Amino acid sequence: TVWQQAFPNGKSPQRVLVPPSPSAIFLVLTVRSGFEEQAKDFLGEIAGLTRTVGFRSREDDLSCVTGIGADLWDRMFTAPRPPGLHPFIEQRGDVHTAPSTPGDLLFHIRARRIDLCFELARLIRDALAGAVDVADEVHGFRYFDERDILGFVDGTENPEDQGAVDAVFLQPDDFTEELAEAGSDVAAAAGGAAAAYAGSTYAIVQKYTHDMTGWEALSVEEQEAAFGRTKLSDVEFAEEDKAPNSHLVLNSIEDEDGNDREVVRDNMVFGSVGSEEYGTYFIAYAADVTTTEQMLENMFIGDPVGTYDRILDFSTAETGTLFFIPSQDFLDDPDGELAEAGLGIGAEPAAEAESTADGDGGAASVPVD
Ligand code: HEM
Question: How many domains does one find in the chain?
Answer without folding.
Answer: 1
